[in-house]
Amino acid sequence: MLRAIVAEQMKLKGNRLLFLCSAIALTLPAILVVNVEADAIGWVYRLQFLCQFFLYPILSSFVITFLIQKEYADQTIINSLTAPVARMTFLGAKLAVWLIWYLLITFGFWVIVSVRITLVFDVETLLESWGTITAMILKTGILYFCAMSPIAWIAVMQRKMFYLSLLAAFLMSSAGFAGLLTHGMMGSIVPWFAVMLLNMPNGDVVASVAYASIGTCSAVGFGLAACSFQMQEL
């Protein structure tokens, strides 16, 4: 598996789409103007609202779609799978690269937010709120990655097409904002509602149900991607 992941990373060297997605993901939180009347936690939450709740899931769908779709478009998938490489290793390497990219972007967002808090507020404010802010950003990144897992399945099923997975990512991200209008059990059952509500200050959500919903979504999404790819005729 490690060799497969390294091979995937080698394929991405000099890739313009990956560079563009990464540049957008890191540039926007650095230049976005946020009302400084809020406290540090509220300020971070407003920054998360556009970046982590909406933009990053969509950008990540570009990454996983490209990783899979390019293999079909260039027909390199046929040569790759005729070599002694298991299908699950092939797909698993792409999902691992997707996860690594998402974690790196989340880490970059955390660094930028920390620097900006120091500039907008002061170092003391950063030190006081560091633990809470780190937990907020990390939890949002991990939960959204899990909730976006069906994109991997769609990317496998659509083969050479590109737009279906991107449309699905847009709808899932938008659904999170619809979750602001829900509360209690209803908001906890739908995974994309649950991610938003779990990260809202004082969000009305049944935490155990919400985490179970997101976990189930992740298992189903990645499971369908694996089963579909395993049974797919190339």
Summary?
By secondary structure, the chain is mostly helical. It has helices spanning 2-11, 16-31, 40-73, 76-82, 87-120, 123-147, 150-158, 163-178, 184-189, 191-198, 207-231.
Features:
single chain, 234 residues, mainly alpha, globular
Please state the average pLDDT score: 82
By DSSP, the count of extended strands is 0
- Please state roughly what percent of the residues sit in beta strands, choosing from under 5%, 5-15%, 15-25%, 25-35%, 35-45% or over 45%: under 5%
Poorly predicted residue ranges:
none
Domains, number: 1
* Computed structural class: mainly alpha
Q: What is the overall silhouette?
A: globular
N-to-C series of helices and strands: HHHHHHHHHHH
- The helix tally amounts to 11
Overall radius of gyration: 19 Å
Question: Can you give the helix content as a percent range?
Answer: over 70%
Major β-sheet, in short?
none
N-to-C span: 22 Å
Structural write-up:
The protein is an all-alpha fold and 234 residues long. It has one domain. The chain is built from eleven helices and no strands. The chain has helices at 2-11, 16-31, 40-73, 76-82, 87-120, 123-147, 150-158, 163-178, 184-189, 191-198, 207-231. Helix 2 (16-31) packs antiparallel against helix 3. The longest helix is centred in the N-terminal third of the chain and has 34 residues, at 40-73. It is globular and about 55 Å long. It starts with a helix and ends with a helix. The model has no long low-confidence stretch (mean pLDDT 82).
